[in-house]
Amino acid sequence: MKQLKQKEYEEFQNYLYYKAHGYIWTPDTLELICSVNDNDPERIGKQMLEMRGKLRNEHVAHMTSDKHKNYVIRSLRRDETELLKDFLYEAIFIPKGVEPPERDIIESPELRVYTDNFGTRRGDNCLVADFGDKVIGAVWTRIMDDYGHVDEKTPSFAISLYKEYRRQGIGSQLMVKMLELLKWQGYERASLAVQKANYAVKMYTDLGFKTLKETAEEYIMVCEL
């Protein structure tokens, strides 16, 4: 097998990123552009020109790193959807001193809405952090009746990383790329629910999420795109 040079590897990763985010206009991409613009020629043309300008004028750094590790943010592959169950379990917030729930909790109806038939509905998006051919984290969205549900036009977020990769900025990078993707797809805002005691509240606030409403234990937050 040919060993890729560093430049060839970076070019290949650029190709994957551009394809996943619509900068390379495949038939599926064009169909999506037409769909979100109600097949209106003027709106379609305007969005395509905006995307062309963005590609020309912006350098998108999709390969990021912390002090010791390199990772790539890419789209979830179709044969990887079962990974979402792992990350759904990892996403469960467990306060200090509380025993983690049994793994089969992810099969409860209120949690299955996050993963059942993922990739088959409008609003289903998933990006993963890939470190050395190992997926270490994921962020995904779908329009669903979950804890962070706002309305039928707003995708809800779910995000998690394996414990050893948390608090290194990877989650923030995943969120940023997903917000970019949702904005490009034409969504006006995104939502999420987070426990008030969860350290991730600060990350969401820093990314532009604002509290829409709250319960005794949770914030329901929205980010305008």
Topology diagram in text:
Layout: H1 6-20, H2 27-36, H3 41-57, E1 63-65, E2 70-75, H4 83-90, H5 109-112, E3 125-131, E4 134-142, E5 156-161, H6 170-185, E6 189-195, H7 200-206, E7 210-214, E8 218-224
Antiparallel strand pairs: 1-2, 2-3, 3-4, 4-5, 6-8, 7-8
Strand arrangement, largest sheet? 1-2-3-4-5
For the sheet with most strands, the description reads: 5 strands, antiparallel
From the 3D structure, determine the CATH topology.
Aminopeptidase
Judged by helices, strands and strand pairing, the structural class is alpha+beta
Give me the count of strands: 8
Count of DSSP helices?
7
- What is the H level of CATH, i.e. the homologous superfamily? Gcn5-related N-acetyltransferase (GNAT)
Domain module count: 1
Query: Which spans have pLDDT < 50 for at least 5 consecutive residues?
Result: 56-68
What's the CATH architecture name?
A: 3-Layer(aba) Sandwich
Sum up the overall morphology in one term: globular
Mean pLDDT: 82
What share of residues is helical? 25-40%
CATH class: Alpha Beta
Provide the β-strand percentage band. Answer: 15-25%
